[in-house]
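[Meeting: bench + compute handoff]

Bench side (C.D.) handed over the final construct sequence. Compute side (W.E.) agreed to return the predicted structure before the next meeting so the bench team could plan truncations. Sequence as handed over:
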Amino acid sequence: MINITNIIKSDISDPALMKRIGFFIRHHRLEQNKSQSQLAEEAGINRSTLSQFENGMNSNLLTFIQLLRALNMLQILDAFAIETQISPLQLARMDKLKRIRAGRREKGKNKPESDW
């Protein structure tokens, strides 16, 4: 069965996505009981820039990051982190290289040489 939500999400226009991001910022600003002026000052941007951003008109990645930082929501960017994973085959090869027990000493080695 085809996942309809993925089809719908991929068909959203860029301006609609910008509005969604703006609504997200506005929602969390209001949830934290901050005015536009307060959040703009904390983020280091103009209040008019924030207003435009919340309305989906001004799209700037740096502004978005500043707003997330001011809202203490930078953890959202963790979705972009790339984690390398070891494949099962590589893990099995690494397990083969591990020592299972100590090796035997060869005769004659590790004995001090005689001074005679």
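W.E. noted at the follow-up: Residues 10-75 form a domain with the 434 Repressor (Amino-terminal Domain) fold (CATH 1.10.260.40). C.D. will use this when planning the next construct.
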